[in-house]
From TrEMBL:
Residues 107-126 have a biased composition (Low complexity). One of its GO terms (cellular component) is cytoplasm. This is Cytochrome b5 heme-binding domain-containing protein. Residues 235-313 form the Cytochrome b5 heme-binding domain. PANTHER family: CYTOCHROME B5 REDUCTASE 4, CYTOCHROME B5 REDUCTASE 4 FAMILY MEMBER. PROSITE patterns: CYTOCHROME_B5_1, CYTOCHROME_B5_2. Pfam families: Cyt-b5 (PF00173). Keywords: Heme, Iron, Metal-binding, Signal. Belongs to the cytochrome b5 family. Gene3D superfamilies: Cytochrome b5-like heme/steroid binding domain. One of its GO terms (molecular function) is cytochrome-b5 reductase activity, acting on NAD(P)H.
Amino acid sequence: LALWGRASQPSRERRKSIDISPQRIIVEDTSTSQPDVGPVPSHAQENGDNESTQTIPKVNATDDGADDVPIIHLNNDEEGSRLADMPPPNGFIQKSISPMLASSAGSIFPPTSSPTSLTNTSGSSLMPPPPRPRASPPQFPSESKAQPSLVQHLAPPRLKSNNQLRPPPSAASTLRVPSAPRPSNSTLAPTAVGGKPRNSSRQVTLEPGHSPLDWAMLTSNLNSKLRGAHLPPELITVTPSMLKAHNGRKGRDAWTSYQGKVYNISPYLPFHPGGKGELLRGAGKDSGKLFMEVHPWVNWDGMLGECLVGILVSENDKTNTRSNDLDAMD
Ligand code: HEM
């Protein structure tokens, strides 16, 4: 490879030709008077050998500048090939050409140019070749063993148990029919069987015709009279003592209060997925806390709207307020 450039020294004697084999650089003083710097073949003829040379881009030289141009040749003779197998001394080429590069061709070689970069004989560029593309695609960072912490950050969180993956309840859940019968609905308190906790679901097997869908059909019928047989069509006021008296025993309906409103839950008892016993825990008193502890997602008003008896009032409130007045209070 022969390279031309404009040297900084004006003298013709400083025109140099530099032979570069992969492992050596020979600096020779041609002291030629030719103003134009020819391509490499001219240099090969001057030396009288038949070594192969590279074609290089030609520089349009002028009389006032071409004389100062150094020439760098790449020598590929046998010796060079033999020496190519041997590692060059560390920094050999850079040390050898540094005096010339500093004054002339230094600008075309980056300071960090390595010997291998000088052997690039593309001829079309004086810069070192770009880095070779990798044979394999770059590894994803998570595959790198050098960054275990990064792997942990990128890895999806590990879930401990399928129980935590239970989807949030939806309206459709109220229509779900239990898939497996329960051994008993006398008590739904969790018990340990064989040392293992019982299934978290405490739903019971509903009697035929008492599915959530059946309840929905029943509430849509305006003639169902789900509030109670002996109640006026209007909402009534209910005192705590009245509520307590309707506990579902002795043939009485079971009332319960929720958010200041009193409902007759007796018609819903055989439809309750959690069982009659669970629902009756709120009979004769407020069930808001119990209800919210078990299934806050259940739409109470949507399911028991037709069972609304009246409004819970204080014991001293003797006024038998009718529904219109209660609506105004709401
Ligand atoms: C004293 C009040 C109540 C108690 C103690 C109670 C208790 C229960 C229990 C233990 C379950 C079974 C939960 C499970 O599957 O693990 C359940 C389910 C259910 N209860 Fe209640 N309940 C009460 C009131 C009500 C009321 C007033 C309604 C209707 C407005 C109702 C509607 C339902 C529904 C729809 C389910 C099925 C929930 C589901 O499958 O996600 N419950 N209840």
